[in-house]
Every structure is written in C-alpha cells, then in structure tokens.
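(Deposited chain)
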Amino acid sequence: MAVQNKSNVPIGTVLEGKFRITREIGRGGMAAVYEAENIDIGKRVAVKVLAAELITSRVVRERFIREARAASAVRSPHICDVYDSGMFEERPFLVMELLEGESLYDMLTRLRRLDLPTVLSVATQTSRGLGKAHEANIVHRDLKPENIFVSKDEDGGLIVKLLDFGLAKFYEPTNDGDPKTVRLTREGALFGTPAYMSPEQAKGHGEVDHRSDLWALGCIVYECLTGQTVWSVEQGVAMILAQVASAPLPRPSRIRPDLTRAFDAWFTKALDRDPAKRYQTARELADALDEALSPQHEAVAVSGRGREPSIHTEAEAVELDQLIAKPSERPPAADPAAPDSGDGVTPEPVVAEERSTSGLPALFAAALLVIGGYALWLEVLHPAGEVDRTVRASRPVASTSARVEPKARVQRDPDTEPFAVLMREGQGLFAKDPAGALEKLKAAYALGSQNPARSLLSHASVAVEEATRGGCKVVAIARPRPYPIEQPASLPALIRTSEGALVAWVDNHSDVKRRQAHVLLLDDALRRGGDALAITPEANNVQDLEFYQFGDKVLLVYTDDGKQPGIYTRQLGLDGRIASPAVRVSKTKPADHRVVLVSAADGARFLVWLEQIDAGGSDVMVAKLAPGLDKLEDPKRLTAIPPIKGLSERAQRLSATIAKGNLEVTFALELPGARSEVMLLTTPLSLLASSKGAQRPGSRTAGGQAGGPAIVGTLRSVAKVVGRIPDPRLSCENEGCLVTWDEEKGGAFIAFLEHGRTQPLWHRAFAQNGSRPVFGGDPSAMSIAWFEDSRLRLANVGRDGIGTPSIVNRVNGLQPHPAVARGTKPGEWLIAWRDYEAGHLELFALRAECP
C-alpha cells in the first residue's frame, strides 16, 4: 500500500522549546517543510520534519541525517545552511535557513529559457557551492534544477543556493589508504535523478566522484539556455539511461542560434563520457563557461528579453524535499565483503554490476533491472495523488517480476559476532597497547562490520594520534549502545560509581512510539557489561535526564512530556538497576526541560528549573526535595521577570550549584533586538526559608519599557551577547564561580566572579571556534570540555583560567553539550558525547588521564 505523508505539525507548536511553527510551506512524500520562528531571537527559519509514516525506516532516517551532516560540514553562501536538529514526537527534524525566492525549476517553468547573464550567474554561484562541498570531500549526487534555489540580495542581484544533500556522498580517508574503502555506494547501486546522471552514476559504479556533479551542472546549463533537457524524458527511465550511455550529444547552437561554437565545445567537454576528459573542478568549469559565453554578454536574449526573472516575496518554494522520482533506498543485504561507505551507509544495489563498455545494450539491460526498484520507490514515497512538480519526466512502469520472500534469519547475540569479539578485545588493550588495540579494531572492520567497528576505529585513531602530542591521554574508548540500536540517541548523562561508569541516553528503540531513558554499566575499559536497561519504562516522552549519587544510590532526575507531564525522580543502584518506583515530584512542565538538583552541606537537596508563567516569560523556580524524594516542599519563585512583547520565555538555559551557603544559578535573559545577557543569581539558603518568593512587578512604565525584575537574592550580569541565545554553564569553588557559554559569532567564553563582588573578576574568549563548553568535577578539581574545529577538547580549569587544552577525540556536525564526570583518581575524567555513525546519531565515551 502506498505511503502518503499526511502527518503534520500543528501551527503554534514549539519544537524542542525553541522553534514555533507559524505555517506550512510545502510537503513531499518524505517530509514536510514549515516556516518557524526561533523564539530565542525571533529569527525566521525553515523546519523540515520527517513524515511520521517513515520514522521506522532506517534508510530514510539515514538520508535525513546525511542531509544535515553534509550541509553542516560545508560553509558557503551558496549552500542552504542547516542550523540545528532535534526530535518531535519521535520524528527527526532539521532547522534550516529560510529562503525567499523560487527554485531554478520553477523559474524555468515560467520563463522556459534564461538570458545568458542570468545563466552565467546561476552556473557560477552553483559552481562555488559545489566547489566548497567538493573541498570537504562531499559529492551532492542529485544536482538538478529543483535543488538550486534562486533568491535576490538587497541590491536586486541573484543569489543562488544549493539544497537537499540527502543523497550526498562522503569521502573519508581511512588509515589503510585503500581507495576502495572510501566509497559510499556499493558498485551496482543507483542514486540520483536519471536526466542529470553521469554515465558512471547511471551504471551504479562505486567510483562516482565530484565529476558527476559537474556533468549534472553541464546538463542544467544546457537546459537553462535551450529550454529543454539534454535527453528525451518521454519514454521512461530505461530510455533515459540508455541515452546517457551512448546517444549523441545535441548541439546547443542548433537549438538556440545565438549560442556560439565556443559554447558547443564547452558543452561537449562538460558531458564527456570519460570523467578524466571532463572539467576536473567546479572552478575550471565555471571559468571556461564564462569564456565561452563572454562574447554573447551583450546579445539580446531569445527569451526573457529586457527583464530580470521575477522572484516571489514569500518562501513558498522552499520545498527542500522536492517531489522527484529517485531510486530505491531500501536497506542493504548483508555483504561482509562490501567496501565501506565512507559514512557507514551501504545502500542496497538496485541495478546489476556492469563493467563492460558503455554501449546501449549493456546499459539498457541495467536499466531494465533498476526499473522495478525505481517504481517501488515512487509508489512508496511518492504515491499517486500527490502534486508532482517534475512533469517533464515520465513515471516508469512497475516491474512484473514475482516477489521473492527473504529467508528466515536465525537470531544471534550481536556481542558474540566475530567483529564484536574483536572490538571488545581492542577496547581491553587500549590502555596498555594502543597500537595493538587499533589492529584489533582494524581486524573487526575488515570482517565487514562497517558501522560499529569503523566508527570506533575512527575515534580510537584520533585518540591515539593526539596522545603523541602530550597533554591528556585517552586510556579507554567506547561506543556504548548495543550494536543493533540505530534510533538516534539524545544527549548523554554520565556518572562514575564504585561499580563502574554509568552512561544513559534517551531513544525509542524499545518502543517506536515512546522515548524512554536507558542506561548501561561500563567497566574500566568502558566495555558494555550487559544489555541496555530501560530506567523509565512508564514514561512516554523523556526530554532530559541527569544522574546524582548519594551514598549507595544514584538519583535519576528527568522530565516527561507524555500523558502525565512533570518532573520525576527515581533511585537506581550503583550498577544502574532500578531501585525505587518513579515519583512525579511536580506536575510542572519546565520551560526548557532542564531540571538541576543541588545539594547543601547539611544534606538538603533542592531542585531548580525554569517555569513558563504565561505567554510573556519564564522564571527561575526552586523547591526543597523531601527526605523521601517523593515530593517538593514549598516551591518558590526566585525571579519575577516582567514580560516584553514578542519575547515568550525571557529566562532560558539554566545551570545551578550550591557554594559557600548560597544557591548559585546562571541563565540567559532574553532582551529585545536579538540581544541577551548571561546572568548569575546568588540566593542565600537562609533566605529561601524566610522568603515568600519573588512577585512579578505591575504594568509597564510610561515609556513602554518593562520595569526591572523582582528577585530573591542578588542578580549580576556576566556578559552581554548579540545573536543566538547562549546556554551558560556554571561551576563554583571556594573563591567564586566560573561561568562558560558560547556565542553565535564569537566562539566560547568564560568568566570568573568572586563571591560577594558585583562585576566579574575576569572575562575572556578562550576558543574562537569553540562551542558547547561544559564543566566537570567539583570545587576540589574542575575541568572544561568543548567542541572546536570538529574536535573534542579537554582542559583543567580554575580560578585563574584554563590550562593547556588537549584534543581527546573528534565530533561532526551540530551536537549537544558533552557530559563530563570525574574518574576514580586525580586527573582522570570520563566524557560521553554524541556523533554521527552511518547516518544516525550515536553515543561515544572515553576515559582520559590528564597531568
């Protein structure tokens, strides 16, 4: 039965407490695209949400995540930015740049042909975007007019951006240098849109590289100038592929007489069937096109005479998942001999391997084999009845071959597989023999376990390489989650107990309709000690969780957005096993889901969170946790921040601790004009018992400005920030408190505030490209970890600043804060973080020893 994308996100929904949906822009079979407002700074963005019907498809999720990974890996004004990612009701979403204009396809539909200056501008800017992607070892593989977006700058000039890297191919060098191990696609797999495929791409050969994108751009330039596709698309996929293989190239000047022989020569080289004879770089192609068209810059255009192409003022055409037929993306059959994918993804081949000549009979036979899978893709992801904007391509006839039922598989314990045994042995060797550990991981990888073995080998290799530079030394490395789990993991929680390291996360692997927290116990080598334990089996939608140890118990604090929303606690044993029922200590739904537990010297425990009061703001709340951990006693409001029109949650991103008899809370205060302020609230514990809590002030002043906030304690400004709302983190020692945060353009910052002083003692940037800084430890020993330039860094930190940082591992894309915990001896730290693996979000962990 055909799958139709009927799911929607209600207007007004706030995703991840940050992005408010304002309207739907468009939808395809795979995803819907919405306009949304970042409520932190008021910025309009596009949000692409995977269809609910497809959340169980591993391959679709991989493509979805690959799009974010590819776009975030390249910085170019000609590639649509991906700002963030998250989950909505088990469905992943991407937060992207909101574009106003139209796709090149829509422009061609209106104008048929474009004038030469416009074509040159579109091709040049597209080449620049492709060039940046190719420099980052990324091949788009589905370049077509639908994936080129045309907008205008403030002066009316054309701005071109590339969209939809969902089929992008990653080339990631490996340690053995074998080029066969860096291919994304197994030989024989077909991906892309037939009318724009290069011959090597149409055959499904694994050696497809950046020159296939240049072939596609040559096809697009021809189409822009002549008003027709290079190949006839009226007879279906098989005939298109056959033409790609051996049909004579058309001569552009015969179709459009104002084109010169110089352009004919450019076109012939751009579409040479031998990749080595084509243009070898995007810049070379663009420069040659400029030269070929330059004599015609002043010529009168055949079409679109005397006017600029009109651009829509609304973002109606930002349909990032264009409705175009693409090949099957079913999961691959097991093939231990298949070469690595480059990012761990090995899609199933849908055309037979073909190594003979590129003549018509050979490719025609391959085309016949692919038609069945191609039609299946259309029926599953693009069913009849949906709006199909690619009316120029005919839908292929479905295959009449009989269905072959798969053989039943014998269930085996993944941890007993040969690759898993080698991985475990490698982890056990890592502390004493890193080189030997890498050899074990390479052997595991050689057995065809591309996903888990490859990613762990990659992370372990970085740790070993960086250890030679001095500083912190990684002595254990882990990919904690069980291997069959591929659902995206949330940010991790981490704690060290006498039983080992406990790492927890949230996903929906045990129940696709519910997001639950799971925990694993790791040994000293960070090897998994057993199956993942569900520690919130009653929950429906766990949003945040933290660990705290008290004696022989670990207290889990989390929030649930399900049928009974609120703040929950649960006691676990030191081994992570459930030791008490879950207790809903508050029915309050925290504004940003983060709840922090702090402990006083006398053993009293307090929960601190942000609570949204109304549409006009949110405030800091605190409540004492009863001795039985079953309820909150006398919740109090510590801030009463007056609302400002247009700002929904003025206090955001909370972190807290107790030091010197005071409750210290840092948060971000949103201000008008895309500004914010990092604040530190100091409240004596003695005042908590006597105060009735802060009361919200009355009406605004005559000038229209709100009055100052009412607070319990002392409120200090740490720093003023322009742009994205910061996410400050806090750690205190005997002399004062350290606050760290990152800024949209300035990198990572840190400040030290002495107890009892109003102004910070010092405040500085410490990592120009740093992000997600977070503290670990306690007043006796503190560290700071952050991401910078695709690396995870770790350093000691204290009252006088940050020590020399060490690179301890790698990270890709936009990831949440890592989790940092102290080890069992001085200078030992545990870190857990999230990274990409085979198109999904996976957890990794390490143990490092620092001087």
